[in-house]
Design a protein that fits this description.
This protein is 38% helix and 16% strand. The chain has 14 helices and 13 strands.
Length: 381
């Protein structure tokens, strides 16, 4: 069933909802609305921007998964909130098929400690969960799938923008961090800003937190600089992206291919040329333009779940450990004896080191045993 599945992909962004059906041959057809869902789909795949420290691979959606996603809305409110709304709408429209969450943060689960760790007090890192995650993972994973080189830098430039270092198909550094606000300037988001400047605005200029949040998310970036067609906006943007790409080359030990995706990356050759020109000191590398197919990556994630991690259909549950094992990854729970045997067999296979995945398993979440869960760290007080 998994290899033949037609998957409805629900891609909820901060300002739009994109719907499409991805067929087994990976062609897709747009869907107008969840109010009139397509007649035959085998499963629904949902893009979720922030999966937090434990949701590092596609999972069937149940109440426990929804709680984990909900706990991350405080650090990704523009993205996780509409994703939860779309999940609710889609489950209502299509209640009898599996629904699977696929996470933008998951591709970056391979970030090494040196790349994910902020130089902030240990209490912030360990108790408050302040660390780097990275985003745009689905788009970057697609680019890495299409471009088979050892050292790849992906500049995903659209409404949101990020630059990622991919070494042998694995993310080893990226510009976005705990939230999708860090990194290079974006359409309306500032990207990285001196923390001292923000403290100055709060303490000396008496901006409140809500105003600061709104300004950084909606009134900054290229919108604040006049856009890409204004010299200052163009120069700041291309300089910062090239600077970030150079930093990613450091993580890779060089550069084989510089790839561009996203609306700006794909459609503005002048932007690509300006960025590439600033990086020619790195030596001989080629540039490529990749049309991001997040819908295909989501569908592949869903089919993987149907094949190996959804052994008991809609009755599959995700179990999140607690107590001293709270930082361990979630596991699958089934009510049927046959499904339980399948799950046990899969667990035994994983324990023996046998796996069908091409990517190495992500390392355990930072913080070790007893690290805080998203619900403990990010729930509103």
């Amino acid at each position: 069933m998994a290899l033949l599945s037609r998957v409805l992909v629900v891609n909820a962004g901060s300002t739009s909802l994109k719907l499409s059906v991805v067929d087994p041959d990976e062609t897709s057809t747009e869907v107008a609305s969840l109010d009139d869902p397509p007649g035959h789909v085998d499963a629904v795949g949902h893009r979720v921007v922030h999966g937090g420290p434990r949701l590092v691979e596609p999972v069937p959606i149940d109440d426990a998964v929804l709680a984990e996603i909900g706990a991350m809305t405080s650090v990704a409110p523009l993205h996780n909130t509409p994703a939860l709304e779309a999940i609710d709408q889609a489950r209502t429209a299509l209640p009898n098929v599996p629904h699977v969450a696929v996470f933008d943060t998951a591709f970056h689960a391979t970030l090494p400690e040196q790349a994910l760790t902020y130089a902030v007090p240990a209490d912030w890192r360990e108790r408050l969960g302040v660390r780097r995650y990275g985003f745009h993972g689905l788009a970057v994973a697609w680019a890495a799938d299409r471009i088979a080189v050892r050292r790849l830098v992906v500049c995903h430039l659209g409404g949101g923008c990020s630059v990622t270092a991919v070494l042998d198909g694995r993310s080893v550094d990226t510009t976005m961090g705990l939230t999708p606000l860090e990194g290079v300037p974006m359409a309306t988001r500032s990207g990285s800003v001196d923390p001292g400047a923000l403290l100055y605005l709060l303490r000396e200029r008496h901006l409140d937190v809500a105003e600061l949040d709104r300004s950084l998310e909606h009134d900054s970036g290229l919108a604040a600089l006049g856009g890409l067609d204004v010299p200052l906006g163009f120069e700041v943007f291309t300089y910062r992206v090239a600077q970030a790409a150079g930093a990613m080359a450091v993580a890779l030990g060089g550069l084989d291919v510089l790839a561009f995706s996203g609306g700006v990356g794909e459609n503005r050759p002048d932007v690509r040329e300006a960025i590439t020109g600033r990086l020619r000191f790195l030596g001989d590398f080629r540039t490529e333009v990749v049309h991001a197919r997040e819908d295909v990556m989501i569908a592949r994630g869903v089919r993987g779940v149907l094949a190996s991690r959804y052994p008991c259909g809609p009755r599959t549950s995700i179990v999140f450990p607690d107590g001293p094992d709270a930082s361990a990854p979630p596991s699958v729970s089934c009510t049927s004896a046959t499904a339980a045997r399948r799950s046990s067999a899969s667990s035994n296979e994983a324990a023996s080191g046998r796996t069908t995945s091409n990517r190495s398993s992500p390392r355990a979440p930072a913080g070790g045993r007893g690290a805080p869960t998203p619900a403990q760290v990010f729930s509103p007080t």
